[in-house]
Design brief:
alpha/beta; Rossmann fold; 7-stranded parallel sheet; two-stranded parallel sheet; 11 helices; 15 strands; about 40% helix; about 20% strand; globular; binds nicotinamide-adenine-dinucleotide; binds UDP-4-deoxy-4-formamido-beta-L-arabinopyranose
Length: about 325
């Protein structure tokens, strides 16, 4: 059985990817320093899938630790999720973001090459696209970022390309995720942001369960269907499956690629609110506020490359995303009460 190392595998996307990989016959090993996750996740995954998951509580910047993991396990593929991801925080803590996200990627690449591990999937982001592009983002479009977090993704992609160029045996795919939301339908894993959520869906989830009074809708004067911002929301389980497809691709092909992972369709903030209300038969109170600085009106993925090369496309609906997100949030709430 092929073994996959998930860096940052205890987090939101990593934990869902662990489930998809296991369901597709892969063994998984996780390394995570728990800076934004909880140790309990691995126990939940093990119980849910009835497997043992070797877990290393440590930092990806630590090359010796990575060498040790590659020595102890015959890893074929690495999926590199580990990173700090809060856009606003990155503006106030740029050095922490560059230090963490770049050094983790550099140490990982060095250790992979040393230990002859030659397949890498990297968590990149739609945020690497320059704002000044058509709304439907295509992989070849101009890149450029508006915040340090985005630049770390931009730079890591470049570091990976340069390392592939210098080491022809190395193969890599940077997956540019759009807006991952939802949770596993089992309700055992999901997103649990610390503090006030920055992103739309976790905020709606907290309004739905009474943690917050109402949603602040950032602007209704954009040139969109109803004036509110439009994004490409993708169910985290579809995103997890995309990692399985990328892993399979690397087992059969060579190269260094960047691929969008989205549904190819946009939804506005108010459409998301409506979908959540309808799916869960619950009211989400909201107030219209000023635009959030740095937001664009519309962006969504052109997802053709993912389908063409990986044979992957999103299958879950907005209703699935909203139902599963609410189910997870209710479970989380029960645990805390
Ligand atoms: P997350 O914070 O839930 O998961 C990231 C995990 O990495 C956490 O468990 C954290 O503890 C760990 N980590 C961070 N730095 C580490 C280090 N130096 N060593 C070891 N572990 C470390 O975030 P997520 O939403 O699951 O995102 C996973 C990846 O996908 C991130 O790289 C993120 O930037 C990227 N991404 C996320 C989104 C999104 O909206 N969630 C969108 C695009 C890209
Ligand atoms: C979506 C829409 C807001 C919160 C961010 C990162 C990006 C990527 C995904 C990692 C916008 C509106 C939001 C709220 C609102 N992450 N909104 N009220 O900004 O598209 O992308 O997450 O790579 O890098 O920038 O997602 O969920 O924050 O916002 O009205 O309380 O919801 O204005 O139109 P965004 P988001």
């Amino acid at each position: 059985m092929s073994k996959v190392l998930l860096t940052g595998g205890m987090g939101f996307i990593g934990s869902h990817t662990a489930v998809s990989l296991i369901e597709n016959g892969y063994d998984v090993v996780i390394v995570d320093n728990l800076v934004n996750s909880e140790e309990d996740v691995v126990h939940r995954l093990e119980k849910f899938k009835n497997v043992t998951i070797p877990f290393y509580n440590g930092d990806c910047r630590d090359e010796n630790l990575l060498d040790k993991i590659f020595n102890e396990h015959d890893i074929e593929i690495v999926i590199h999720f580990a990173g700090l991801k809060a856009v606003g925080e990155s503006v106030s803590l740029p050095l922490e973001y560059y230090e963490n996200n770049l050094n983790a990627t550099i140490s990982l690449l060095k250790s992979m090459l040393k230990n002859k591990v030659h397949k890498l999937v990297f968590s990149s982001s739609a945020t690497v696209y320059d704002e000044d592009n058509p709304d439907e983002r295509v992989e070849g479009y101009k890149l450029g970022c508006t915040n340090p977090y985005g630049w770390t993704k931009f730079m890591c992609e470049q570091i990976i390309r340069d390392t592939c160029h210098a080491n022809s045996q190395l193969n890599a795919i940077s997956l540019r995720y759009f807006n991952p939301v939802g949770a596993h339908p089992s309700g055992i894993i999901g997103e649990n942001p610390k503090g006030v959520p920055n992103n739309l869906m976790p905020y709606i989830q907290q309004v739905a369960t009474g943690v917050r009074d109402y949603l602040r809708v950032y602007g209704n004067d954009y040139d969109t269907v109803d004036g509110t911002g439009v994004r490409d929301y993708i169910h985290v389980c579809d995103l997890a499956d995309a990692h399985v497809a990328a892993s399979k691709y690397l087992q059969n092909n060579k190269g260094c690629l960047e691929i969008n992972i989205g549904t190819g369709k946009g939804a506005s903030v108010l459409e998301m609110v409506e979908a959540f209300e309808k799916a869960n038969k619950i009211k989400i109170p909201y107030k219209i506020e000023a635009r959030r600085p740095g937001d664009v009106a519309i962006n969504y993925a052109n997802a053709n490359k993912a389908y063409k090369l990986l044979g992957w496309k999103a299958t879950r609906t907005l209703e699935d995303m909203c139902k599963d997100a609410y189910n997870w949030q209710c479970n989380l709430q029960k645990k805390h009460n």
